Amino acid sequence: MLINNNDQLKQFFVKSQKDKIIGVDTEFYRVSTYDPKLCLLQFSNRSQIVIIDPLSKNIDLKLIKKILFSKEILKIFHAAYQDIEIIFNLFGKIPEKIIDIQICLTELGYPTSTGYAEACKYLLSIKIDKKNQFIDWRKRPLSEEKINYASKDVKYLPNLYLKISEKINFETNKNISSKHKKFLDIDAFKKKPERAWKKLKINETKKYEMKKLKEVCFLREKIAKEFNVPVKKIISDQQIRSLCDKKIERKKKKEILKSVQSKTLKDKLFKNEFIY
After folding, report:
1. Looking at domain 2-185, does it have CATH number 3.40.1010.20?
2. Cys staple from 44: which of 4, 79, 154, 210, with CB 3.0 to 4.6 Å?
3. Whether the predicted pLDDT of 248 surpasses 90
């Protein structure tokens, strides 16, 4: 259901307080700018899905904040970093009581990059079509197709959490708690260049040159902010991991560095003899 007034949003909040659990997802636009622009916010509880248009003048952002920061409601995300980043940019703080399904899946032995559709398939035996992911969410009016797509992204989050709860005791599992605490480090969302490396997902089975990894993350953040472009337009996460992977040969690293999109970063790294 597309919510376009505050009364509907209040009703959803009251119901969610009783359920004590909601799924949360966002749709945003970040093709050409450093900071993402929030275009849509989706919530689901045990019986309802609501799509909120934050660009609408009829929606009070204070009500959205009340839901997101309620201490009574558990918020379920999947691959939450960019969602949390947007919420932090909007309200200046991180919601309490968060569970990231993707983090939980690693505890069950699934790969760190397991997607939402895969999680639904593995745990709920539900197939989700994730085609046409590259949508310009700024455009209005929202089509029925877009609303349905956004609804699917949040529909199964509470059920995924309940299914995982059958296998993981969230109250006693210190590993899950530690991973969430590390992930929700507020310094990472303040976008301090010297802390940018904390945002990078690292394969814990591999060994990295951490000093170099921190250096390239620092430079990427500074350059992206200076030129107002997404950080991944400067250099991708995978390129950073490969450049700093101790097992990858120098010759291969030179090839990777030459393929880096940002000439500014490339010049700085060559000047600093980054791979020598």
Report:
1. no
2. 154
3. yes
